[in-house]
Write a structure and sequence with these properties.
The protein is mainly α. The protein has two domains: 185 residues, no CATH class; 53 residues, Arc Repressor Mutant, subunit A, CATH 1.10.10. The protein contains ten helices and no strands. Helix 3 crosses helix 4 and helix 8 packs antiparallel against helix 9. The longest helix has 32 residues.
Length: 288
């Protein structure tokens, strides 16, 4: 079990939204950011009993050398500052980048997705068009899941800075897909009631929906991984990695595998059908 000092102090600490992002000219994105947020912004607080158990379970599933390395570094993290949560998230992200282990990604998601949702909501305050913040959050974590090799854990706030840059780019993509992306420049925006703003209860309801979506998403990822490893042949797994993970074009992937384009398309189609069928079977199977 990973043990660190001050086990209850982190109950009050959340990730800090203090990154300075290059947001000039970005439609629908405000350049201001609050210096800190409360622990309620994180759906999984670093409470001793829950977090330590989940962390130990995730580390135990890694290769012994990697698990021991991460465990020793987790033990050195501060527990009485906001930087402790940021450093924990950065180290979890590094662990996922090095292992592609889904339990590690699930723990990272539960620790940080509420904070990222709050950042998205802040950035959308001045947008004239409606963008579903939960859609943005899902796209952000999809990018995190697909491109962990681009992450560099160079300081405690590395994940915060990296994920916030993904938030900015994802928001721009969503806003460009709408009919209008004007930015409200009225200096009284913050003090005059705006009928377009949603009530606090609406935001809370969306937060609860995001938590439910997070749990469902993590479950689907775990089921997908099991189906991918158990239900596909090596050639089918390789083909899907080329197409769905590396994002290669079909022709380039066919060249990499040394097969005809038509054969590759058949392999990918067959593999996707197998995955869908096996995921349905796993999700419908009775719990032991």
């Amino acid at each position: 079990m990973v043990k660190r000092g001050g086990r209850n102090r982190m109950d009050r600490v959340g990730m800090s939204d203090s990154s300075q992002e290059p947001e000039r000219g970005s439609p629908g994105i405000t350049s201001s950011s609050s210096s800190s947020t409360s622990s309620s912004s994180s759906s999984l607080a670093l409470a001793s009993d829950v977090f330590e158990r989940r962390l130990e379970e995730a580390l135990s599933g890694l290769e012994p050398g990697l698990g021991a390395d991460l465990r020793s570094r987790f033990e050195q993290l501060p527990r009485d500052t906001a930087g402790g949560v940021e450093a924990t998230a950065s180290l979890l992200m590094e662990g996922f980048a090095r292992s592609r282990d889904l339990p590690v990604f699930s723990l990272l998601y539960e620790l940080t997705h509420r904070q990222i949702l709050m950042v998205v909501l802040k950035r959308l305050r001045f947008a004239h068009v409606y963008v579903d913040p939960t859609d943005v959050v899902q796209d952000v974590f999809l990018s995190i899941y697909r491109y962990p090799h681009r992450f560099r854990n160079e300081k405690s706030s590395s994940f915060r800075n990296w994920s916030f840059s993904i938030v900015r780019n994802t928001l721009l993509k969503h806003l460009r897909g709408t009919s209008s992306t004007e930015v409200e420049l009225d200096p009284l925006e913050d003090v005059v009631e705006d009928e377009r703003c949603r009530a606090p209860v609406t935001v809370l309801e969306q937060g609860e929906e995001a938590e439910h979506a997070a749990a469902t998403y993590a479950l689907c990822l775990l089921v997908y991984r099991r189906a991918f490893q158990m239900g596909l042949k090596p050639r089918e797994r390789r083909a899907l990695r080329f197409i769905e993970v590396r994002g290669l074009k079909y022709r380039d992937a066919a060249d990499e595998m040394g097969i005809r384009l038509e054969n590759l398309k058949m392999i990918v189609c067959r593999a996707r059908k197998k995955l869908l069928r096996m995921m349905e079977e796993l999700l419908e199977a009775p719990h032991e």
